[in-house]
């Protein structure tokens, strides 16, 4: 999932960044040790291998008592098909310009498949 998600996120960013679309990436190591590197190593990997031009923040917890406040808000705004918890890396939230969670997508939802939702929020067709 890493290759396809990072590649497609980069494509989405390039397509819609000039219309006000932003991607914020928050690595998490709560899922099978998938993000064991330091924050600097993760940024280096994503920016070098996938040419990411959007912000990659420091690692956060997305589940449990130590979940980042942002993820507590996102999850409480839109539950997933199996409840509030994030099930794996690359869970995605689409947030409108007023800060409301418009949609939540499973880790297996490929970024390019949500283009119609992005266009709708941006007011383009």
From TrEMBL:
UniProt keywords (A-Z) are: Oxidoreductase, Peroxidase
PROSITE patterns, alphabetized = GLUTATHIONE_PEROXID_2 (PS00763), GLUTATHIONE_PEROXID_3 (PS51355)
The biological processes this protein is annotated with in GO are: response to oxidative stress
Task: Cite the CDD domains for this sequence.
Answer: GSH_Peroxidase
Name one cellular component (GO) term. Answer: cytosol
Which superkingdom does the taxonomy of this entry point to?
Answer: Eukaryota
UniProt key word Phosphoprotein: no
What's one GO MF term for it?
peroxidase activity
Q: Which Pfam families match?
A: GSHPx
The yes or no answer to whether the keyword Cell inner membrane is present is no
Return the InterPro entries for the record. Glutathione_peroxidase (IPR000889), GPX_CS (IPR029760), Thioredoxin-like_sf (IPR036249)
Member of which family? Belongs to the glutathione peroxidase family.
PANTHER family (alphabetical):
GLUTATHIONE PEROXIDASE (PTHR11592)
In its UniProt entry, what is this protein called?
A: Glutathione peroxidase
Q: Which organism is it from?
A: Digitaria exilis
């Amino acid at each position: 999932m890493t290759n396809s998600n990072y590649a497609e996120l980069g494509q989405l960013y390039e397509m819609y960044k000039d219309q006000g679309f932003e991607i914020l990436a928050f690595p998490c190591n709560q899922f099978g040790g998938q993000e064991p590197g330091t924050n600097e190593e993760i940024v280096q990997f994503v920016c070098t291998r996938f040419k990411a031009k959007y912000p990659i923040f420091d690692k956060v917890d997305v589940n449990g008592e130590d979940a980042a406040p942002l993820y507590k808000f996102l999850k409480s705004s839109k539950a997933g098909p199996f409840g509030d918890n994030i099930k794996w890396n690359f869970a995605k939230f689409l947030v409108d310009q007023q800060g409301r969670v418009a949609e939540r997508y499973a880790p297996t939802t490929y970024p390019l498949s949500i283009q119609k939702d992005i266009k709708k929020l941006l007011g383009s067709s």
